[in-house]
Design goal:
The chain is α/β, with parallel strands linked by helices. The protein is 45% helix and 17% strand.
Length: 361
Amino acid sequence: MTLEFGVWDQLQVYEVQRASTAAEAYELHFRQAQLAERVGFGYYWSLEHQGSYVGAVTAPTVYLAALAQHTERIHLGTMIWQLPFHNPVRLAQEVAMLDHLSRGRAEFGTGIGVHEHEFIRWGMSFYDRQEMSEEALDIIEMAWRDGRVTHEGKFWRFDEAIVQPMPYQQPHPPIWAAVHSSRAIAFAAARNYHMAQNIDVDDVMVAKFAEWREAWTAHGHPGPMPKQFLMRVVHVAETDAKAREQAEPYLMEANSLGRELVASSRVGFGENPRGMGHEDSEDIRERGRVFRESAKSYDFWIDNGLALIGSPETVARKVAEGAERIGYDHFAAKFHIGRMPAAMVESSIRLFGEEVIPSFR
């Protein structure tokens, strides 16, 4: 079985808050990205959130451009750039510039954002975000294809905007779409984008990956099939017992750490405590269940595939079983778990790279 492996690196707000400077926190993650590159990971993924406790990389293109100067081979992306928060022509140019600064290592991960309070704080409509993102992608693809953008849309207007530079990779950096809803799955499949998933339990992942493959096939795209990405929390130690002992206390705080940053603000989470506004669907309710149950039970994480924790042999077996059952060909590991010490995180990265990845070559 051949898989691609990436690190999904969630630089958390609490890390910046407790560091002497934000630069100190960034540099720690740069060193860990260098370690990941040395031990065999092919991809490094950041993520964007605005005004949130979830992530502290608020300018992902700037962050990755700096990281490009500290690495040589590893591909660099953000999963996701939150499209509604960006002028699409500027974002097209920024990602193209990152592509040049990294000599063709940029990966363009796209999505719409899921937290209402982030949109409220920027004076934007949470409920327009899907339509905004689809329009933004039309503009970005036009920019990379034509080098000129003339566009009269609902959210943006451009009159022969000149795009510089054009991407290093041709025709452009790979485009990934983070998908949860059936609408997002159908959109990504229609556009022939690589797809990405996280959060859902394995049983739900099986259905969603199959739904995406069916939708992609129905469009009759010429091959090959785009890549299919799954992110999971990972901790590797010398034995299963040691891995659990190390990871469990940090795993149980992982989803709530830092919530007071938003909870104590005037805007808070928006219309409801989960930050979903008044949107409601079976999928949204299921993700709410996942967060509730994972906050209560270590075994829920393990039994539902949300976290892969154990010896190198155990983790390799679980990755292989997941790939066979769900169908992913790109596995992204999240090694930062709660307030886990850096030395423990780095030991896990090293063991995964040196003892798990080689079993898939």
